[in-house]
């Protein structure tokens, strides 16, 4: 797993070298980002030698007077591929910037761009630490789930005694390992995910399609990869960048998606069908562009049901999760699909709701199994993906360990069947 250590400008910056070493002892791939101030206290070369990676020291390529496009988007790449970002030492200055969303260098930009857990280990003068502004900034960060490794008390570099000394490395390493531990609960799983909307050609320039952007499926893929799974993403056309360390198989039509899914099924332990698959395709595809000449009647035929084929070919222990996008009688249609398709769960979208569902960055769903209906709150798709994965993992747990507050639907489902 990849951990990024952000080093900011304080006397304690020299201790970050030892922190890098201690993280490496846990088989973590450590990368380092330094602020400009940090470079007054310790050289990037030290970290480059320790990590074997280039140390990032600025937003722009060295020696370039105009910047270069590759380096300008590097912070996004770094932010997306790291599994945790730990800033040690964290000065009062970086805490203030983080609390206010300021992004004026590589490290602060990365803080905004990452969805990985962020840990800060502050180190500063005791009066700066106790200042209401610093304490308010820490409270803001804690409310945003930034993990704070409190400084120790003792003699400080400024000659004063009090709180503000960088926490011991073992406390910082422990915090990093604990956030990573939560995220490696899919180690050993191979998750096969479909995403986007399939397209069925009418002629060489037109197709029947739908409004799926692929965002939900890609968020699932990124979350599963971050939690240690091997991920295979079968993707219909989207405008999205492939998540890091995920095997992407691009497809266009429903038939191609089915072939790609079935050919990889023997490797999968969990199948998640987030794609919006075309239910119909034109019976015949015109060789040449159709010309406009009065009304046109299209004859459509049903496509193959990929989810049904997956259920038919399932191996023992394999979990199969479908998605459903509904506009009315949402729960009833969801239950019907769950039973008819034979999946272990259906993630149910009410796509008539404003601001969620197709193409939105946010979603709110019901996780529906044969005996439970769990409403998950409106969140970003990336946040929701983790909650959906949490629910999927409960399907591997013995029934008696499930929460009693889960709604029991067994009776109503039984009646429908
Ligand atoms: O991509 P986004 O813009 O982020 O939007 C996300 C989403 C709303 C598309 C996604 O969350 C979602 O709900 N996907 C499923 C949409 C859908 O097609 O639902 P359905 O009710 O038509 O199909 C039910 C299930 O059967 C789905 O898992 C689908 O992949 C599967 N199916 C459907 C038809 C078919 N021929 N083969 C299938 O496997």
Describe this structure in words.
This protein is of the alpha/beta class. It has two domains: 2-179, Rossmann fold (3-Layer(aba) Sandwich), CATH 3.40.50.1950; 190-416, Rossmann fold (3-Layer(aba) Sandwich), CATH 3.40.50.10300. The chain has helices at 15-24, 44-51, 69-72, 74-81, 92-100, 106-113, 126-130, 132-143, 169-182, 215-226, 254-264, 306-312, 330-341, 381-394, 410-416, and strands spanning 2-7, 29-34, 84-90, 118-122, 147-148, 152-155, 161-165, 190-195, 200-201, 207-208, 230-235, 247-250, 270-273, 280-282, 300-302, 319-326, 345-350, 362-368, 373-380. β6 and β7 (161-165) form a beta hairpin. α1 (15-24) runs parallel beside α2 and α4 (74-81) packs across α6 (106-113). The chain is elongated and about 85 Å long. The two termini are 45 Å apart. Ligand PMT is lined by residues 194, 212-216, 254, 273-277, 279, 303, 305-307, 322-325, 337, 349, 351, 357-359.
SS summary, helix count:
15
Radius of gyration: 25 Å
Domain count? 2
Number of distinct beta strands: 19
Could you state the CATH homologous superfamily of the largest domain? CoaB-like
Task: For the largest sheet, list the strands in their spatial order.
Answer: 12-11-8-13-16-17-18-19
Q: Tell me the major beta sheet.
A: 8 strands, mixed
Tell me the β content: 15-25%
Structural class: alpha/beta
How far the N terminus sits from the C terminus, by CA atoms, comes to 45 Å
Under CATH, the topology of the largest domain can be stated as: Rossmann fold
Looking at the overall shape, the CATH architecture of the largest domain is 3-Layer(aba) Sandwich
- What CATH first level of the largest domain would be assigned? Alpha Beta
Shape: elongated
Helical coverage, percent range: 25-40%
Query: Uncertain runs with pLDDT below 50, 5 residues or more?
Result: 63-67, 403-417
Rounded average pLDDT: 90
- Ligand roster: ligand PMT
């Amino acid at each position: 797993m990849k951990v990024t250590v952000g080093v900011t400008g304080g006397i304690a910056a020299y201790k970050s070298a030892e922190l890098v070493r201690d993280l490496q002892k846990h088989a973590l791939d450590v990368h380092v980002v330094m602020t400009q101030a940090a470079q007054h206290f310790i050289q990037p070369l030290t970290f480059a030698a320790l990590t074997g990676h280039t140390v990032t020291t600025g937003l722009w390529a060295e020696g370039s007077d105009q910047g270069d496009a590759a380096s300008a988007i590097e912070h996004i790449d770094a932010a997306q591929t790291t599994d945790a970002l730990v800033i040690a030492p964290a000065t009062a200055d970086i805490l203030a910037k983080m609390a206010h969303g300021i992004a004026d260098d590589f490290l602060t930009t990365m803080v905004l761009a990452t969805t990985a857990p962020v840990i800060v280990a502050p180190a500063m003068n005791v009066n700066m630490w106790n200042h209401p502004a610093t304490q308010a900034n820490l409270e803001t960060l804690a409310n945003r789930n930034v993990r704070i490794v409190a400084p120790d008390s003792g003699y400080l570099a400024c000659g004063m005694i009090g709180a503000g000394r960088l926490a011991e490395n073992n406390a910082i390493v422990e915090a990093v390992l604990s956030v990573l531990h939560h995220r490696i609960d899919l180690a050993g799983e191979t998750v096969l995910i479909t995403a986007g909307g399939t397209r069925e050609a009418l002629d060489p320039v037109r197709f029947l399609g739908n409004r799926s952007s692929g965002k939900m499926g890609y968020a699932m893929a990124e979350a599963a990869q971050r939690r240690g799974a091997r991920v295979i993403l079968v993707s219909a056309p989207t405008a999205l960048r492939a998540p890091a360390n995920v095997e992407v198989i691009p497809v266009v039509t429903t038939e191609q998606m089915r072939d790609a899914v079935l050919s990889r099924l023997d490797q999968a332990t969990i199948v998640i069908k987030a794609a919006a698959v075309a239910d119909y395709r034109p019976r015949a595809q015109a060789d040449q562009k159709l010309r406009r000449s009065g009304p046109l009647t299209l004859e459509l035929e049903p496509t193959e049901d990929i989810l049904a084929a997956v259920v038919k070919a399932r191996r023992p222990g394999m979990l199969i999760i479908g998605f459903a996008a509904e506009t009315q009688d949402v729960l009833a249609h969801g239950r019907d699909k769950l039973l008819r398709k034979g999946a272990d769960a259906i993630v149910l979208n009410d796509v008539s709701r404003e601001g969620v569902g197709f193409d939105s960055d946010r979603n709110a769903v019901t996780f529906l199994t044969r005996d439970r209906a769990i409403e998950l709150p409106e969140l970003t798709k990336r946040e929701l993906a983790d909650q959906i994965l949490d629910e999927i993992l409960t399907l591997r747990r013995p029934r008696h360990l499930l929460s009693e507050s889960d709604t029991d639907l067994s009776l109503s489902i039984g009646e429908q069947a």
